[in-house]
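Notes from the 1:1 (GR / supervisor)

We went over the backlog. Supervisor wanted to see one worked example end to end before approving the batch request, so GR pasted a single chain during the call. The sequence is below; no edits were made to it. Supervisor asked that the structure be written out right there so they could see what the output format looks like.
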Amino acid sequence: MTETTETVKTPMQNLPEEPKMFMAESDYEKEDVNARVIIIMFIIGSITIGTIMFLLSEYFTARKETQIQAANAVVSSTYRDVRAREEERLNAYKLVNEKDGVYQIPIGEAMKLLATEDYQKRLKESQTPLAEPSSKGAKEKAAKAKVEKEKDRNQKDAKNKN
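Structure output shown during the call:
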């Protein structure tokens, strides 16, 4: 009988030879990570991403403004036409009704005339002091004048409404 001796092998010894080439002698890195390279790459990446975001923002802002200007160009021409017609109508002389003698004058002049007439009317009213009627006849005259002023005022209001 022959005796066979077997040697007991450890698990690492059972592995084929090729994998041992890839295994390091120790399980950790011998060198530290190069922090300077990582920081520089982080800064370059941040600047690149920031620049790209800024350029995209500017691009889309400019594009949006172009679209708004194009839309406003159509509205602007219509607006300008309407505004020109309104200005012409407000600032022109015109015969409105020949029978009644109604004329159209520019709005600026009309406002000046109304302001002047109102000023003159108020000036006359303030210059003529209301006298205390001492006699019965003076009281009647003052009452009649007051009634006449009221009638004139009502007639003017009626004309202005028409």
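Supervisor's comment: The mean pLDDT is 79.
Batch request approved.
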